[in-house]
Amino acid sequence: MFDTVCTLPLSADLFSQALHPKESVVSVGLATGHVQTFRLPTDEAASDDDETSNSSSRNGRGHIDTMWRTRRHKGSCRCLTFGIDGETLYSAGTDGLVKAAKAETGVVENKIAIPTAKDGSVDAPTIIHALSPQTLLLATDSSALHLYDLRTPFSKVSAKPQQSHHPHDDYVSSLTPLPASDTSTSGFSKQWVTTGGTTLAVTDLRRGVLVRSEDQEEELISSVYIGGLAATGTSRGEKVLVGGSGGVLTLWEKGAWDDQDERIYVQPGSGGGESLETMAVVPDELGKGKVVAVGLGNGGVKFVRIGANKVFSEVMHDETEGVVGLGFDVEGRMVSGGGQTVKVWHEAVIGADKYGAMPGEKRMYGDSDDSDDDDDSDDDSDDSDAGGRQDKAQPKRKKTKAKGKGGQHVMAFHDLD
Question: Where is the composition biased (Basic residues) (predicted)?
Answer without folding.
Answer: 395-406
